[in-house]
């Protein structure tokens, strides 16, 4: 079957359900979007950003890629960040990883996956930076879970180091950067402890969050 009619059926059911709850929802949504949040998360199909935080379309601006990586040469991610910060004027940027991430597992194991290996090299760099700690952990499952958290911290710091966020802070624009983790096992979010709203908070708060990740049981 080539045309996927079941997805069109589900779309009609979804739209009808939203309209039944709020008859003017789509008319309002079509006028503008004014989200307060930018979500930078993983492409994993089990991690639907809006649903996790219970927000409707129009309330969360979203960028997703394999293993929620923020790279200073990735014009796709940077363009989303720039549009969110400078045009939409979001107040919060949330970098959210998730436990059980296949990209993290592949990076840790060094499993060849093809082209994506070049992308996951960024995660391997994080792993290499913290390898003595990670290898001291009792199992691969625990190692990968901690690497997920460490990766979130590193990518949240990368967000803070972009010229986009730096310039926003310089002009006094309120903007907070968060690092979160999502657990597939229970559907709940965890705060890694990283939160920065000014340049002088980045290193201090990263250090404190890192201490929490590397010392918690």
Summarize the structure.
The chain has 217 residues and is of the alpha/beta class. It is 53% helix and 17% strand.
Descriptors:
53% helix; 217 residues; alpha/beta; globular; Beta-carbonic Anhydrase, Chain A; five-stranded mixed beta sheet; 5 strands
Describe this entry's structure for a reader.
The protein has ten helices and five strands; from the N terminus they run ααβαβαβαααααββα. The chain has 217 residues and is α/β, with parallel strands linked by helices. It is 53% helix and 17% strand. Helix 5 (102-109) packs across helix 6 (116-129) and helix 8 (140-160) runs antiparallel to helix 10. It has a five-stranded mixed β-sheet with strand order 2-1-3-4-5. The chain folds into two domains: 1-31, no CATH class; 33-215, Carbonic anhydrase (Beta-carbonic Anhydrase, Chain A, 3-Layer(aba) Sandwich), CATH 3.40.1050.10.
Compile the SSE list and pairings.
Elements lengths: L4 H17 L3 H7 L5 E6 L6 H4 L7 E6 L9 H13 L4 E8 L2 H8 L6 H14 L1 H5 L4 H21 L2 H8 L5 E8 L5 E8 L2 H17 L2
Parallel strand pairs: 1-2, 1-3, 3-4
Antiparallel strand pairs: 4-5
Percent helix? 40-55%
Biggest sheet descriptor = 5 strands, mixed
Structural class: alpha/beta
Instruction: Note the total helix count.
Output: 10
User: How many whole angstroms does the radius of gyration measure?
Assistant: 19 Å
In sequence order, what are the helices and strands, one letter per element? Answer: HHEHEHEHHHHHEEH
CATH C-level name of the largest domain? Alpha Beta
The total beta strand count reads 5
């Amino acid at each position: 079957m080539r045309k996927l009619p079941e997805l069109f059926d589900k779309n009609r059911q979804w739209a009808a359900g939203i309209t039944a709850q709020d008859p003017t929802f789509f008319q309002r949504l079509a006028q503008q979007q004014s989200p307060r949040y930018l979500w930078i998360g993983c492409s994993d199909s089990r991690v639907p950003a809006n649903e996790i935080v219970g927000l409707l379309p129009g309330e969360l601006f979203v960028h997703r890629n394999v293993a929620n990586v923020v790279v200073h040469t990735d014009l796709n991610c940077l363009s989303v960040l720039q549009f969110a910060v400078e045009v939409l004027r979001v107040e919060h940027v949330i970098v959210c990883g998730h436990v059980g991430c296949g990209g993290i597992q592949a990076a840790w194991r060094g499993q060849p996956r093809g082209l994506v290996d070049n992308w996951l090299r960024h995660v391997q760099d994080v792993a290499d930076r913290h390898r003595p700690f990670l290898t001291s952990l009792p199992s691969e499952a625990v190692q990968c879970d901690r690497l997920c958290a460490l990766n979130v911290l590193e990518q949240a710091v990368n967000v803070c180091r972009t010229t986009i966020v730096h310039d926003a802070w310089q002009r006094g624009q309120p903007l907070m950067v968060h690092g979160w983790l999502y657990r597939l096992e229970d559907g709940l979010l965890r705060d890694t402890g990283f939160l920065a709203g000014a340049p002088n908070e980045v290193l201090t708060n990263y250090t404190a969050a890192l201490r929490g990740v590397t010392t918690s049981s």
